[in-house]
């Protein structure tokens, strides 16, 4: 069973930073690509980016380019989403996901809410 545990969401002012974490079992971490999605109110779920344990990565949303960074820690079976220069439009529930490739995801975490105030 694939379990993904997210943490790190919260309330931050515009211009601030947050780091989201997602921890999986070692088997999940080494088997699947892991990604981040976000779902803002009244909008479709959006792919933010993905990464594999050996460092291959891709970003999906142009709006986060240069502000968000995905990384991994192989010692902790964890992936991170470092979010800088946050804007109110970044307000969303952020989901960690796992899947067979950087562009295909089948398993989802419970989500962590990020709220950016203006």
What would your notes on this structure say?
With 118 residues, the chain is mainly beta. Helix content is 5%, strand content 48%. Strands 2, 4, 5, 6, 9, 10 and 11 form a seven-stranded mixed β-sheet that branches. A four-stranded antiparallel β-sheet has the order 1-3-8-7, with no helix packed on it. A hairpin with a 6-residue loop joins strand 4 and strand 5. The chain is globular. The mean pLDDT is 94.
Q: Count the helices. How many?
A: 1
Helix- and strand-based class?
mainly beta
Rg over CA atoms: 13 Å
Helix content: under 10%
Question: Strand percentage, roughly?
Answer: over 45%
**Assembly state:** single chain
Our measurement of the CA-to-CA distance between the termini, rounded to an integer number of angstroms, reads: 40 Å
Number of strands: 11
The major pleated sheet works out as:
7 strands, mixed
- Unreliable runs: none
Overall morphology: globular
Instruction: Write the element-wise H/E pattern from the N-terminal end onward.
Output: EEEHEEEEEEEE
Mean pLDDT metric: 94
Features:
118 residues; mainly beta; 7-stranded mixed β-sheet; 4-stranded antiparallel β-sheet; globular
List the topology elements.
Blueprint: E1 5-7, E2 10-13, E3 18-23, H1 26-31, E4 33-39, E5 46-51, E6 57-59, E7 68-73, E8 78-83, E9 92-99, E10 107-108, E11 112-117
Parallel strand pairs: 2-11
Antiparallel strand pairs: 1-3, 3-8, 4-5, 4-9, 5-6, 7-8, 9-10, 9-11
Short description:
With 118 residues, the protein is mainly beta. It has 1 helix and 11 strands, in the order E-E-E-H-E-E-E-E-E-E-E-E. The protein is globular and about 40 Å long.
């Amino acid at each position: 069973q694939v379990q993904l545990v997210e943490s790190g969401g919260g309330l931050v002012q515009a211009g601030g930073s947050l780091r989201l974490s997602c921890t999986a079992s070692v088997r999940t971490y080494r088997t699947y690509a892991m990604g981040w999605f976000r779902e803002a109110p009244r909008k479709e779920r959006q792919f933010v980016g993905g990464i594999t344990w050996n460092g291959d990565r891709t970003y999906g949303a142009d709006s986060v380019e240069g502000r968000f960074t995905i990384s991994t820690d192989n010692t902790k079976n964890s992936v991170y989403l470092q979010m800088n220069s946050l804007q109110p439009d970044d307000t969303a529930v952020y989901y960690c996901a796992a899947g067979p490739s950087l562009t295909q995801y089948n398993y989802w975490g419970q989500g962590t809410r990020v709220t950016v105030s203006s």
